[in-house]
# Entry
Amino acid sequence: MPPGNISKKHFASLALLLCTTLIVTPFAHSAPVPTEPAPDQSAVTIIPGSDAVKWQPAPVMFPHGTKMAILTGDTSKPGPFTLRVMMPAGSFIPPHTHNLDEMLTVISGDIQHFVGQSLATTQQRHLGPGGFVHLPVNVPHAIKAGSQGAVLQVSGMGPFSMTYVNPQDDPRNTGR
# Structure
């Protein structure tokens, strides 16, 4: 058959092939192709509400009456963690630093947040529910809970440590 002359049978076969290709190609590209195994869902943490948070007495490096709840992670090991701190009304955590970047969010109540080596030279900010602070590693800061107390959420990458600017302020040195 000379070029340019296509039989009806050959034309019908080409048309069928073209239509099939046009119909099937989008499906082939949209089908999910598993490239890695599904994530381990046993590592998922879900806390449905504040009444499900399990509070414990805070470590002795915190003021007396402070409570803490580890929501996820392990503050003593490398890796992400999130915890909550419940500060009684008027309680005060003197100037201190951390060995990590700290992200602090006020969940309830209010605080006075101080940034600096001493209260005399600090920048003071009042923070209410939803208030947020990012503190880079080793930035000295202090926190005073308001008249209703406060619940704070703290996140970072462990391991977590806390060093008081003035060792005499450390409750471990004062018997709380």
